[in-house]
């Protein structure tokens, strides 16, 4: 038995309908959040540049998604209904572990992108000791997430591996071209110069969009 969700044909045919329903339901919330955010002219003591604000929003989003996945994995019945809505059989322990790993990977990614912004927000000038401790923590989290990503790859079936490979290839092609053109424009004085940190939230946003599109097209998105 593979660890990837075995969707029935009827379930797959309804993915577009469910996506439209989710989109319609989320659109008013997104609009209201955007209006609320745009109405802020001052964030108090935090006046973030766009990369910091984007990183914070992406980090909160990934932490929320990761916690949601872990919440579903806490119940074998709930996870089973997500994987196979028609039969609704409880998920196996292997399936629970696999999807819980995916949730932890997302949660760690969110934490890692939030930490630098949080540290710079808390300190006007980051003390060397605090910066070093935060960097050591980030390296530890990065190594842990890398190990879990490798474990997810090993436990995935061929369909999931193909999706991961496609996401990586598309991200490389899109980001390589986009970042090169932006860097060239900055070097020629036509565009603002982008720092490495500026590129991080852009890279993460592109990755999430491509990953969602690929998994949705392949029928792997619940």
Description:
The chain is mainly alpha-helical and 222 residues long. The protein contains eight helices and no strands. Helix 3 packs antiparallel against helix 5, helix 3 (50-73) packs parallel to helix 8 and helix 5 runs antiparallel to helix 6 (128-155). The longest helix is centred in the middle third of the chain and has 30 residues, at 93-122. 13% of the residues are buried. Mean pLDDT is 80; it is low at 1-18.
Estimated radius of gyration: 20 Å
Indicate the percent of residues in helices.
over 70%
Proportion of residues in β-strands = under 5%
What separation lies between the terminal Cα atoms? 19 Å
Note the main attributes of this structure.
222 residues; 0% strand; globular; disordered N terminus
Provide a compact summary of the structure.
With 222 residues, the protein is mainly α.
Blueprint of the fold:
Layout: H1 9-13, H2 15-38, H3 50-73, H4 76-83, H5 93-122, H6 128-155, H7 158-187, H8 196-217
Helix pairs in contact: 3-5, 3-8, 5-6, 7-8
